[in-house]
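Hello support,

Our group uses your service weekly, and this is the first time we've seen a run hang past the timeout. The protein is Serine hydrolase domain-containing protein. I'm not sure whether the cause is the sequence or the server load. Input pasted verbatim:
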Amino acid sequence: MRTELGEILARAQETGVFSAAAWSVGTADEVLDRGVLGTRWHGGPAATEHSLWDLASVTKPIVGLAVVALAERGLLDLDDPLPRHLPAYAGGDKASITVRQVLTHTSGLPGGTPLYREHTTRDALLEAIRIGPLRSAPGTRVEYSSQGFILLGLIAEVAGGAPLDRLVADLVTQPAGLTATGFGPAGGFLADAVATEDCPWRGRVVCGQVHDENAVVLGGVCGHAGLFAPLRDVERLGQVLAGGAQALLKPASHAAMIACHTEDLALRRGLAWQGLDGPGSPVGTALEPTAYGHTGFTGTSLWVEPARGRYYVLLTNRVHPSRTTPGIETVRREFHASAASR
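Update from on-call engineer: The timeout came from a worker crash unrelated to the input. Re-ran successfully.
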């Protein structure tokens, strides 16, 4: 028998908001509601427990967990300026930006910039970030910035002395028990991926390649996007976080990550986590005020209520076949309102 959450998502699937959805709601010790429905693309095979979802920007807090773990090990300091790890940033307008400001989206680096259109190689795209203008002075404004997290991935590699995919595996996915999460493509890893957009830039429906175009140019392994995971892994991460993240971080580090560091600014941001921004929150207002989480452009999200010890996972491919398909905002709010009332 389908639950209320399943009914909400089934109605959205039937009206074309997405072709598939997977969800899980629970605590550190118990799954209260979960399921998978729909097809990997419209008219395609059924989505299953093993289907892999493009997490999009849910990658950011996972990379953030790795960066904070590196800080715990003394390999970097959150107040390090960029040039300490990226010498090319010395002497310019970005020299004073700190790792902490990147994590809280207060670096002044712009967001939502389609650099891939004019910068078609990894080196060219990274150079465009280095020489591009800041949108605001560091520390003065919250602006969601994938550019900042691209740099954060580079910082992690320098500080950790290993490629980003290995650091994420060693510091986050393996300790948390996420057995099928990783950056693609890697052999047959993405054979069961859920489709995303019918992409004009690529001239095809994207399935098994990261949706984010800047990430494609960067090779698919980067700090702002690129991770794929099945429901059970995102569910497991939700359980670890709901239980205090002890498998990943010391209590003080976890507390610092989920605290609001931007109380004097317009938006609530932790270290790589979004806070609940009142009526502007993508998941509505039903979660407790100290809730934290992250959404992904492809239609994914993971949110946690620390006081209640609850997690909320919603995975969809709302950009299939087009990113302009309406409805995901309403679905997210309705899903979380219903889930939080349990």
